[in-house]
From TrEMBL:
This protein's name: Phenylacetate-coenzyme A ligase
EC numbers: 6.2.1.30
Pathway per the UniProt entry: Aromatic compound metabolism; phenylacetate degradation
InterPro entries tied to this protein: Adenylate-forming_Reductase, AMP-bd_C_sf, AMP-dep_Lig_C, AMP-dep_synth/lig_dom, ANL_N_sf, PA_CoA_ligase
Top-level enzyme category: ligase
Pfam families (UniProt xref): AMP-binding (PF00501), AMP-binding_C_2 (PF14535)
Organism: Deferribacter desulfuricans (strain DSM 14783 / JCM 11476 / NBRC 101012 / SSM1)
């Protein structure tokens, strides 16, 4: 299950921890060299709470003088997690991001418009480092300024758009208001989107309206930023760079490894990170291993499925477990509904109540309402309050889209 290279890099990483961070090394409880997968899975997990408790540098494994920069998680659900990066970490980031671009057919001939932020959030810099590595022309515009985004897209002839997954929805709305036709007014051909769970249906609609091919990219601050993996032109799984990372899938309840093809929580071990090396980090992302064989695209890496949700995103209402992305998949089967929706959870007389607000598009009528309502009931097995609102009625987020508002207990 582990290659010779992975075992070699894993032991180097553990040695680095031993040399630089006695607290971290003692926690691993390692007495000898890791020689097999069975040895490896005896190592303890690291959780987000562990890293939070170690704020700011409790798990860092480099001298402070070697830190070149830092990025951090949003901290919206608790103490933020800081990832200090050495020069080698930045070089590693550029390398894996360059691979991601190449996998998405991006070359030095492309013009890349980077819309994630260039601040504490890791996205913008990762896209930038990779683009420089492949010597493409970069437009580092960052987030917002949607009118300017379209202007640059047209006048600077951008061919690649990098964004968090929900941002293309905002661009599409602005384009409709301006009469901007992506297929006629731009040379856009590739979209690389991530940082959020986005359904296949949303993907199809974005591709149709923008006239592009999209690629799903994954990664997180804790593991070194965006670029952990990306799907290829076959679009049947996300390639993870397994000479830099070990990926496991475990049952989130029992913590036991699951068979390939079975969904569970993704656990990541970094093999080449210095500032914050991670051993068996529980990401909370739900996915599965779809292949370990060589892909028809030519790459031979482990492939995981597109992220379905997070263990802490799963909703349990009236005994039914589901993810917001599953609701999204149903809604986007109807062109008469927009791509904007929000799920509101409330406590009414001691019982959970679910209201689903969705914006309407042209052509929506009572017949469509009945079909949507029936599909939702067939999926959930209980009745929710389906509220159709006018386009623009749901508040847009500046960053990641907020799909669930939980008012229970408030």
């Amino acid at each position: 299950m582990l290659s010779d290279l992975q075992l070699e890099l894993l032991n180097k990483t553990i040695y680095r921890i031993k040399k630089n961070n006695p607290f971290y090394f003692e926690r691993l409880n390692v007495n000898s060299e890791i020689k097999s997968y069975d040895d490896f899975i005896k190592l303890p997990f690291i959780t987000k709470d562990d890293l939070r408790n170690g704020y700011p540098f409790g798990f860092a494994c480099a001298d402070r003088k070697d830190f070149m920069r830092m990025h951090m998680s949003s901290g919206t659900t608790g103490t933020p997690i800081i990832n200090p990066m050495t020069q080698n970490d930045i070089n590693q980031w550029a390398e894996i991001m360059a691979r991601c671009y190449k996998t998405a057919t991006v070359t030095s001939e492309d013009t890349i418009q980077i819309t994630p932020s260039f601040g504490l959030f890791n996205g913008g810099f990762g896209f930038h480092y990779g683009a420089e590595k492949i010597k493409a022309f970069v437009i580092p515009i960052g987030p917002g300024r949607s009118h300017l985004q379209l202007k640059f897209m047209k006048e600077l002839e951008s061919t690649v758009l990098c964004a968090i997954a929900s941002y293309p929805l905002r661009l599409i709305e602005i384009a409709e208001d301006e009469g901007f036709d992506f297929k006629k007014n731009s040379k856009l051909r590739v979209g690389i989107f991530g940082a959020e769970v986005w359904s296949n249906e949303m993907r199809k609609r974005i591709e149709y309206i923008m006239g592009i091919e999209t690629f799903d990219i994954i990664g997180m601050t804790e593991t070194g930023g965006v670029g952990l993996g990306i799907d290829c032109i076959k679009h049947d799984g996300i390639h993870v760079w397994d000479d830099h990372y070990i990926v496991e899938i475990i049952d989130p309840v029992t913590c036991e490894p699951v068979e390939d093809g079975i969904e569970g929580e993704m656990v990541v071990t970094t093999l080449t990170r210095e500032g914050l090396p991670l051993i068996r980090y529980r990401t909370r992302d739900i996915t599965k291993i779809v292949s370990r064989e060589k892909c028809d695209c030519g790459l031979h890496t482990i492939k995981v499925g597109r992220i379905k949700g997070r263990t802490d995103d799963m909703l349990k209402i009236k005994g039914v477990n589901f993810y917001p992305s599953q609701i999204e998949s149903i809604l986007l089967q109807f062109n008469e509904l927009s791509m904007e929706y929000v799920i509101i959870l409330e406590d009414k007389k001691g019982k959970d109540s679910v209201t689903l607000k969705v914006e309407r598009e042209n052509g929506f009528n009572d017949d469509i309402f009945d079909k949507v309502y029936t599909k939702l009931y067939d999926f959930l097995g209980f009745h929710l309050n389906l509220e159709i609102v006018e386009k623009g009625a749901i508040e847009r987020s500046q960053g990641k889209a907020k799909r669930v508002i939980d008012l229970r207990g408030k």
